[in-house]
Amino acid sequence: MQYAGSEVNNRKDINLLQHVEKILNKGDESGNGMIVRFRLPSGLDIFGLPTKNFYGGDWDLGPTWNFAVMADEPFLVDSGRYGQGQKLVGMMASVGIKPEDLVFVLISHGHEDHDGGLAELVSATNLRVKAHAIYDLIIRQYPKKAPPGHKQGFPAKCWHCPMPEAFFTRNCLGYHKVLQQLEVDRIADGMQQLGTEIRTYHLPGHSPDCLAVRIGDEAIIVGDIILPDITPWPTREAMYDDIAAVINRQYADPSAIFGLKRYIKSLKKLGAIASAHPEMAVLPAHRLYFRDRWNGIDLGQRVRELLHHHVDRCGAILEILNAEPKTADEIAGEYFPEHLLKGNGRLMAVNEVISHCELMRYSGDVIALANNHYKSSGSSNCEGYIRSLQPEG
To answer: Residue 350 is part of a domain; what is its CATH number?
Structure first.
């Protein structure tokens, strides 16, 4: 099965296209404006409704894919970025989905391109909001617990954001203000049932509140936990310190919800789900359709690819450190190509280096020194350590 204007990339894409019942709106080469109806073998329909992002250049994620799942209790996954809520309502209306047709909206995780349109969406539809319990904690403001300075007017989830003040003040301040009054139905850790054969999994690492949604053995909506073509951004365990005062009663161990170590455990949990349900269609939040091409995911294979990627990156960082101790910024400058280090790209690259160095402190391969320097211990245990990590839940 192939559609005009699209390229079938490989067998994974063919498997994905078997579920494309109809492209209701073609959109552009990145998927902006596209509306797709996926039909699972059971007859259940899922509408893919991608909304625009402002990202671009070498860090372009493409649009955010929001999904309307027309189950016994129909629901929406995600709401797009700030300013997209009403547009998402319009996209649903264009395919005959009325707000009263849906029971709730579930947020896969609290990054702005996934929940930015939420308050606008709820205002237009009166939908209930479901999200992980951590999400409900960190979208709130805690003026007495906030770090001093310019982030006192922001909710807890922003206290560890690595972006500069000019960026988050311009792009995020309005969006955070409108989230403060939202009521959230909390989803707990582990596997939780939402409806008949519909279950959520708490899989942190990219964000502490990440959820995946499995629909029987037919499909899984994975948010940003796993993506085609690009590797998801990992958090750092050190980010926990910024929100510890808000969250430590429920989560005393930073590695339970933050960091590359936890992300790898989440990947392995997805690998176990793939083994139990090998025929599932995988619906990610970005790059599902990009550059006029479908990007299907074989879940088990993609998990293995990402694990190899992180092993290789750890090895490359160790090679850089074998010469002499270096800061994360110096490591990033040697490891990443120059075009990925422009502007805010450098902040993201440094974050990636630190997340890997945190992991290699567990494996005994890296020693943290004063003045934000890291040095090699002379060992190379990271591959065996990554292999030894086991999924949780």
So the answer is: 1.10.10
Compare 147 and 353 and report the one with higher pLDDT: 353
What H or E segment, with its residue span, contains residue 220?
A: strand 219-223
Identity of residue 49 = L
User: What's the CA gap between 384 and 160, in Å, rounded?
Assistant: 30
Residue where the block lists tokens 């450098």: 346
Residues forming a β-bridge with 282 = 220
Sheet strand arrangement including 281-284: 191-195, 198-202, 211-215, 219-223, 281-284
Is 303 inside a domain boundary? no
Q: In this structure, which amino acid lies at residue 334?
A: E
Contact 63, 50 (CB under 8 A): yes
SS3 content of the chain, % helix, strand, coil (to 5): 40, 20, 40
- Is 292 found in the same domain as 334? no
* Cα radius of gyration (the chain): 21
Letter for the amino acid at 253? Answer: D
State pLDDT tens for residues 43-97.
999 999 999 987 666 667 899 999 999 999 999 999 999 889 999 999 999 999 9
> CB-based burial of residue 255 (10 Å sphere; 0-12 exposed, 13-18 middle, 19+ buried)?
middle
Residues 141 and 232 in one domain: yes
Q: What is the pTM assigned to this prediction?
A: 0.93
**What are the phi and psi torsion angles at 294 (to 5°)?**
-75, 140
Q: Which of 359, 363, 366, 353 is nearest to 384 (CA)?
A: 363
- DSSP H or E run through 13: helix 11-17
Q: Rounded to an integer, what distance in angstroms lies between the CA atom of residue 171 and that of residue 222?
A: 25
